[in-house]
């Protein structure tokens, strides 16, 4: 069962790199923001899978904090793109 979670984490990591490529070639800033947000979401999923696979509960705290930071960063970038400033 542990190998299944490691395989799923590896697949998610490969997909995260594909999203990074999409962020690099994205034609607009909105495409880049969405791609980086997807990378953050995949990172949280990978951390949660690793936490379950290795029975380390404190990794879920790390995943939660990372999700909050990713959300705040996405909101900040979206606000900056909309208004041109963070005021």
Describe the 3D structure.
The protein is mainly α and 87 residues long. The chain has one domain. It has helices at 2-25, 29-53, 58-83. The chain is flat and about 45 Å long. The mean pLDDT is 89.
Topology of helices and strands:
Blueprint: H1 2-25, H2 29-53, H3 58-83
Task: Sum this structure up briefly.
This protein is 86% helix and 0% strand.
List the total number of helices.
3
Cα Rg:
15 Å
Q: What does the average pLDDT come to? A: 89
Domains, number: 1
Give, in order, the helices and strands: HHH
Separation of the first and last Cα atoms: 49 Å
**Low confidence ranges:** none
* Strand percentage: under 5%
E-strand count: 0
Quick one: overall form? flat
- Sheet having the most strands: none
What share of the residues lie within helices?
over 70%
Give me some keywords for this one.
3 helices, 0% strand, 87 residues, mainly alpha
